[in-house]
């Protein structure tokens, strides 16, 4: 009966873990929700503050540019009434004759040229053009019936005519100023000035200002964005579209509705609008501020981008959320610290009780540690011995790599030595015969040639001995000397290859053994020659540059490059892409190992233009200003 009782008592202890886990989960979720809420509040507050600042700044710009538009519109209001002072104009309207029309045409042409308008023209009381400043042009207004235009109908009844529209003759948009010309108290004609407003748009574009002007019909007539011109800022009913089409005010423009993706009214003349970006994957938001222009039924709208403002608000919201998370973390850490302190106080007595037991165990552990130290010393000695063996094996592998390179060049070396040997045999035999004949000058010449051939063979064997001798990780090497030595070793193969060699490096002093640098260069140049084998045009670049305390030499060829699947295995031992038994797969591995041992590195690059480039980086000891000139 005791076993079931014990099992029943143990069950609640295991179940106590679940409420604690649930409590921690709820706490974590609550903190996350609070952090998101505070971030959202911070975002809204920052956005509202930014919109207020943007609104104040936009109001100043709105007032400034609106006044500029008003000034541009009103600067020519006096011009139509000025024609009342010209007698030739009144004479033409009262009694039209070809001579008077010619006089007025010339007058209007000169006046238009001085004022810089698009056109100035004169209408009779029937609405037909009697004279115009563009009478010389093929699309002249002369003889046109413009009685249907609203500006004429206003001016002929004695009221100022103000009208923006697209010309029915030229198809060019302009602002029309009309004035009824009076003679003895009655209107005898109408003077009209067509004003160019494109200068405003050009100034907006240069100032990178995003703004537009809409007329009394809600049509955008001026805009810094050409795509918005002749679009309706509000929906047009079918009756409105038919009325505007009959009036020909906008010629044959479709008057499509301007369709923002979203629109939110923030106040009187203030809106937040957004449009789809050019790539249709995002949207661009603006704060639109609108003001009515004086003396016209037009509205000027300024668009201020909200993208940067909302990005800043997002950053502020994230900072608020992170700040809350940091504060919550500090509070949780403080609470955990308080619990830890309470736990330590409770455990202090237990520690005092266990102290004696620990001392006893320490004595036992001390003996164990001494034995462990002895074993550790043995392992250290073994590790040092292993490192020495590894270094010796590496040196042997380096030497084997040198011998492998020499073995690959054995045919070329034999060819290099056979030529002077054959020449020596021929010259020595001839010299004996010339001595027997008494031709001492010819014999002397042959002996000098024999001496040069012997020197050449000595240089070949000396280079091979220097290349084959053992070296260590440290030392110093001249880059120019190492390149010349490597090219000398590969001289026979270079003569058989249609190669153009480009040299652009300084004769710098590097922190590496001279022989090891030569071995690396021989491996890299040999690989480049193998890669370009069979090409009609072989190009090899040796480019060097100083990078701080490091010198970087790049060996680049114009071969077919390395297959992407093989690039990850380039520096693995015994991996080679050469066919048959022409490669052991140790050249790049040894070269990278030698560069690393000298404190440098060897890396492969694969240019988009083709070929392969290996970059050798070594510590720089000394640099000179001299650079090797390109050699074919």
Automatic annotation (TrEMBL):
Kindly list any coiled-coil regions of this protein: 348-375
Q: Which residues form the Histidine kinase domain?
A: 412-622
E.C. no = 2.7.13.3
Q: Which GO terms describe its molecular function?
A: kinase activity
> Organism's domain of life?
Bacteria
Q: Which SMART domains match?
A: HATPase_c, HisKA
Q: Where in the cell is it found?
A: Cell membrane
Keyword check for Nucleotide-binding: yes
Q: What is its main location?
A: membrane
Keyword field: ATP-binding, Cell membrane, Coiled coil, Kinase, Membrane, Nucleotide-binding, Phosphoprotein, Transferase, Transmembrane, Transmembrane helix, Two-component regulatory system
Topology in the lipid bilayer = Multi-pass membrane protein
- Per the UniProt record, which residue ranges are transmembrane? 21-43, 313-334
The keyword Lipoprotein is annotated on this UniProt entry: no
Record field: catalytic activity: ATP + protein L-histidine = ADP + protein N-phospho-L-histidine
Task: List the InterPro entries.
Answer: dCache_1 (IPR033479), HATPase_C_sf (IPR036890), HATPase_dom (IPR003594), His_kinase_dom (IPR005467), HisK_dim/P_dom (IPR003661), HisK_dim/P_sf (IPR036097), Sensor-like_sf (IPR029151), Sig_transdc_His_kin-like_C (IPR004358)
Q: What is this protein called?
A: histidine kinase
What is the source species?
Answer: Metapseudomonas boanensis
Q: What is the lineage of its organism?
A: Bacteria, Pseudomonadati, Pseudomonadota, Gammaproteobacteria, Pseudomonadales
